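Next comes this protein:
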Amino acid sequence: MTQAVPPQTSPKWGTMAKTVVGLTIVAIFGALLVWFRRIIGPLILTFILAYLLYPLVKRLSEKTKISWRAATNLIYLVVIVIVVGVLTLTGLAIVQQIQSLLTFVQRFIEDIPQIIANLSTQVYQIGPFTIDFGQLLNVPTLTNEVLSVAQSLVGQLGVVIRSFAGSAAGIFGWGLFVLIISYFLLAEAGRIPGQLVRIDLPGYEYDLQRLGQELRTIWNAFLRGQLTIILLVIVTYSILLNILGLRFAIGIAIMAGLARFVPYVGPAITLVVTALVAFFQPSNYFGLQPIYYALLVIVLMLITDQIYDNIISPRIFGHSLNVHPAAILITALILARFIGAIGLVLAAPAVATLSLLGRYVFRKMFDLEPFPEPESQPAPGESTWQRSYGRLKRLVKEMRSRIKSQP
């Protein structure tokens, strides 16, 4: 009689083996991050693009009953047509506006000594107040202090201006890299039903499901909500500044939109640059003196910023990114040092993600319930885009009702 052979089982690792292997993996991963950190930014953009297009491909595949690969091909064909169209129609104008704005800032820095000397002779009457810059400014001391800072800025800004056109090839190359890699990533995602990335960890299915839901809420609010806010800001400022007759209106509008990524610092830099452009503009539609024209532009920009900060942004984002602006600013500086400009863009969701994971780890270490709040369920069949559009639609309706109710 043949004796049954017991099934072969793999031996389990002990605590020491797990610790050594875990630390080794962390060390290798950290070394790879440092060594290849130049490619981290494009890889993040690759995953973000695939993540944004995933719902569109999924819906197109389900509605038309075509294969996942065919739906991916159609979506990327539309994306390429849109990108080429936008670059063809507005790319040159936008580049010229930005280059002109950078050139203006560079010339301003170079002319600082003469500007301070001229400013010291100016006397302005604002209502009952008289401002005599000759008495307020110590011209030699102020000029030396400003020049000590401006010399380094001139050199850096000059490098930026000279490399702006030369970097177009690099930007095009990285853009092509992002487009191709995201295409292959999304095309293969059809093999994993319902998810772009799937992680299986026995015993932690519920934890992973809840963390995934919370992370999707954070990144959906950021990627789609922030994109909506930035586009609205750019359109609003383009209309406002063109009505005011300000030079470089499109370039400043783009700067104002991108400044939404960096709290405090971004809007402050935008206001300073806008004030300089308005003050040194030769003429304006209203026939105002430069200082009054600059004040008018700045006041209208501050009012617009307050509307976005206190009315529009909270309604679109809700409480998905409920993090302190100071934490976002610090994280933006750290990430910018590590992965460049993309770190500025991803600072807000990075802080929210770290906060979520930190709370989970802290509560697990003290044997507390990691998810004390009940699970929130979205409305059946409602996508993230539909929820964002619904919030914006309710906001417009509320603002219209308030206007009508005013006497």
The first helix runs from residue 15 to 35. Residues 155-166, 378-382 have pLDDT under 50 and may be disordered. Strands lie at 123-126, 129-132. The chain has 15 helices and two strands.
